[in-house]
Amino acid sequence: MHRYLVYVLALILLPVSLALASQWPAWYWGVALFGLMSVLGTWDVLQRRSVLRRNYPVLAHFRYGFESIGPEIRQYFVQSDLEDVPFSRQQRQLIYQRSRNEMDVVPFGTLRSAYAVDYEWINHSLSPTSIPHHDFRVVIGADCAKPYSASVFNISAMSFGSLSANAIRALNKGAQLGNFYHDTGEGSISPYHREQGGDLVWELGSGYFGCRDENGRFSEERFVENARLEQVKMIEIKLSQGAKPGHGGVLPAAKVSAEISQTRGVPMGVDCVSPSKHSAFSTPVELLRFVARLRELSGGKPVGFKLAIGHPWEWFGIAKAMQETGLLPDYIVVDGAEGGTGAAPAEFIDHVGVPMNEALILVHNTLVGLNLRDRVRLGAAGKVTSAFEIARTIALGADWCNAGRGFMFALGCIQSLSCHNDKCPTGIATQDPSRWRHLEPVDKAQRVFRYHENTLRALRDLLGAAGLNDPSELGPEHILRRVSPVEIRSLSSLYRYLAPGELLNKVPEHVVFRDYWADARSDSFNPPSRIAALRASKER
Fold first, then answer.
1. Which residues contact 281 (CB under 8 A, 6 or more apart)?
2. How many CB atoms lie within 10 A of CB 227?
3. Cα 442 to chain center, whole Å?
4. Which alpha helices (DSSP H) does 281-345 contain, by range?
5. Which candidate, 319, 277, 245, places its Cα nearest to that of 512?
6. Distances (CA, A) of 51 to 47, 48, 221
7. Cα distance between residue 331 and residue 23, in whole Å
8. Where are the alpha helices (DSSP H) in 300-415?
9. Segment of 17-26, 113-122, 292-301, 335-344 carrying the highest mean pLDDT
10. Which of 63, 399, 402, 518 is deepest in the core (most CB within 10 A)?
């Protein structure tokens, strides 16, 4: 009967409190408390939805209460400084310090074990260099009428709708102050992106928000209206997103406000649907023709696409289409499976898509093997927050890095894991005005700017220590990883890198190329015939 002890005690103490309250009015607090517990316990016993509440009246609610604050308890009291799921306390603290211009040095010694498997470092030089600046840039679309000189560190795609109005204002102003770009996300260009004048990369998802007709298909006329804005520097076609590749989305009608309706070009009172695939193209060749058409319509601005790698033959099909048609994107952004999102199904966020390292190396290798790498720039995104992570990602094959959650931390995100329920405590990932209006965009823009600025200063110092002058000089030979307690390997020896033009002469002894390159098709994303046959063999 101990399961009912609290409930029974409440029933007993309620009349006792009433009797005492008739003599001492202060006891009315006991009447209120035990009365509430009695009503709650009675309801628990009578209801039939929860067995736990029927078996443990009143007590069950303590369990629910502790469970509801479990993430906060783990984050603030249990999680170690280096537990990086999703981001470690050390990573967050570094961003907070740099965004506030606080001292970011570390006392005593590293918290990491230099002898632990997967420990990584960059080799230094006995002849370090002195680099006079930290504004490292990459020219994208050199052959375009309007090429763009991008910073090596930029704000990744996060839409208005996922982020609040003031968060967008602060991010864009920070980008304007630091002369780096702000990716709009697939939610299109909102008024809040325009207010501050920061450089924009306009992302086009499968919903074609901001450039769609009444039926949700791509509209050239509406595209031109936005694409030719001076503030828009590049166009990015979103093929897939790392956190939920191959998955569309729905913004419920109730959340389609007048602002979102105007920004996305969708009607109010109707669910806003992002299909799982594009309607403007259906094959690799058609994708590249679409890229070329957007470049023309935009007046010669760089056009590329973002993708998370899944079936290798699909990426190989795009690469073969480049080789056969001569139609090239100006850039490709590789989004790793570890990328973030406001909300995604658990199975997608945990188990779908290739992580950034392997995805980036595959895309880089393919372009090198086709002698196209010098004509197509590569960006990469996936939990990049520090100068070392930028250096490491560039060493693997990228030209620049994007970050989403890193810049959210700069805005003040506390990793409360409430992005999906519109209850973000810091006013960043919410559309609730009572929450986001307290986020001060002028102050937060300075933090975004300082985080970017101080991170690039740290990158400059890393490059100087390694004896280099520019991030473009980084290669996989510069990054070392401990693979066992007694073995160290450079990334260049851990991963197989193709020689320039190697794919033009033969299929390399690289398992993914060996298994899928020959069968990939530029006219279809469909699986090779042998893969289709394997699928058919399982049918009943």
1. 287, 289, 290
2. 23
3. 24
4. 284-297, 312-325
5. 319
6. 9, 7, 59
7. 81
8. 312-325, 346-351, 356-369, 387-396, 405-411
9. 292-301
10. 402
